[in-house]
Amino acid sequence: MTAGGPGWITPRWPAPPGVRAVTVTRAGGESRAPYASLNLDAGTGDAPATVARNRARLLSALGIEREPCWLDQMHGSNVVRAAHYERAPRADASVGQAGSPPCAVLTADCLPVVLCDMSGTRVGIAHAGWRGLASGVIASCIACMDRPGRELLAWLGPAIGPESYEVGPEVRDACLAAVPGTRPAFVPSPARMGRWLANLYAIAARQLESLGVGRIYGGGFCTCRDGSRFFSHRRDGITGRFATLAWIHESGHGRHDPAEPHGTVRSA
Q1: d(Cα 141, Cα 20) in Å, to the nearest integer?
Q2: Is 103 within 8 Å of 68 (Cβ atoms)?
Q3: Dihedral sign, CA of 174, 176, 179, 184?
Q4: Which of 141, 156, 159 is nearest to 241 (CA)?
Q5: Architecture label for domain 9-157+214-249
Q6: 20 to 30 A from 94, CA-CA: which of 14, 104, 110, 156?
Q7: Taking Cα atoms as reference points, which of 211, 215, 108, 242 lies closest to residue 155?
């Protein structure tokens, strides 16, 4: 497994020197179907020993010597400081700085939101499905970074696309109540009356803008439609999880070789 991994995705964004971020794909691991192959979450039902070997492959490929700050994700808004915990903390976001282990989230349709400040001293990452967005996980992550939104950059990693994400009215109502101005992110489903197609990227971008973050990049993926690269719970039900990581490069702690840049400006 070469540094960067097979087809892994690095943001194309004007992050300061030293800020590193990557989304790995499902390729290059040891897990067998339905978790094939680089499943990084033992909570899915995959063999824990296999997941441990997959995580070791990940660290080797990135040249990272410190175990990432893995989270026990709950679809909420709790945020922790990136550190080595005896047991994964119940949280859906983490914030790090130089010397911290990499921040990490695991997803299979939910949206990973990566943040950094313009001075390159803080990074953050949030696991933002519709529940996380409605509960304010992005706002909580920014508050923990202790930087105003105008000093931050954001990158939206791979998530389910709006053409595949059909939701009920309760999801739409919760998001509209929590994130004003997101009505255009929902369009009526052509397949079923009373259902909606939801755009997680647009909801997250609107929330970021409301928090003062004007430089937003990424988007344009669909985990559900891209089965060769991504796990998708909506598509497969029982499946694995891929990771998005963010950290600040520090000599002796890691190496990063860009793999597949991807990013489009969401908002100027």
Answers
A1: 18
A2: yes
A3: positive
A4: 159
A5: 4-Layer Sandwich (3.60)
A6: 14
A7: 215
Tokens 């994400």: give the residue.
Answer: 165
Tokens of 106: 């695991």
Residue 72: CB atoms within 10 A of its CB come to 13
Helical segments of the chain, H only: 48-62, 130-135, 137-145, 169-178, 200-210, 233-236
Domain residue ranges in the chain: 9-157+214-249
3-state SS assignment for residue 47 = coil
What string of pLDDT tens digits covers the 268 residues of the chain? 334 566 899 999 999 999 999 999 999 999 999 999 999 999 999 999 999 999 999 999 999 989 999 999 999 999 999 999 999 999 999 999 999 999 999 999 999 999 999 999 999 999 999 999 999 999 999 999 999 999 999 999 999 999 999 999 999 999 999 999 999 999 999 999 999 999 999 999 999 999 999 999 999 999 999 999 999 999 999 999 999 999 999 753 344 433 333 443 333 2
d(CA 140, CA 47) in angstroms, rounded, equals: 33
Looking at this protein, which amino acid is placed at residue 78?
N
Could you tell me where the DSSP H helices lie in 13-136?
48-62, 130-135
Q: What is the DSSP letter of 161?
A: -
Residue tagged 């647009």 (tokens): 202
87's tokens: 């047991």
Say if residue 124 is exposed, middle or buried (CB neighbours under 10 Å; 0-12, 13-18, 19+): buried
The number of angstroms, rounded, from the C-alpha of 25 to the middle of its chain's C-alpha atoms is 12
